[in-house]
């Protein structure tokens, strides 16, 4: 008799990820439609991004990856007169 863990590795984690995916999509949709006024969609968006990245989906801009110019950090501000 085969072990169930070998046949279905991680089916519980897949099920939980699908529930979180559906919840975050529903929250974001309701927020963008204006049905929920007192909700900050940032948490739902971060959960959506995390679940999609766990499946290998990259959410972001497509195309060239331009690096932002980096600011040099200094210990004291420089004031020019």
C-alpha Rg (nearest Å):
21 Å
Chain-averaged pLDDT: 78
Number of strands: 0
Which secondary-structure class do the elements indicate?
mainly alpha
Strand composition percent? under 5%
| Largest beta-sheet details | none
> In angstroms, what separates the terminal alpha carbons?
83 Å
Bin the helical content: 40-55%
- What string gives the helices and strands in order? HHH
Poorly predicted ranges (pLDDT <50, ≥5 residues)? none
**Global geometry:** extended
Number of helices in the DSSP assignment: 3
Please tell me about this protein's structure:
- The protein has 81 residues and is mainly α.
- The protein has a domain at 7-54.
- It has three helices and no strands.
- It has helices spanning 4-7, 11-32, 42-54.
- Helix 2 (11-32) packs antiparallel against helix 3 (42-54).
- The longest helix has 22 residues, at 11-32.
- The chain is extended.
- The model has no long low-confidence stretch (mean pLDDT 78).
Give me the secondary-structure topology.
Layout: H1 4-7, H2 11-32, H3 42-54
Overview in brief:
This protein is mostly helical. The chain is built from 3 helices and no strands.
Task: List its traits.
single chain, mainly alpha
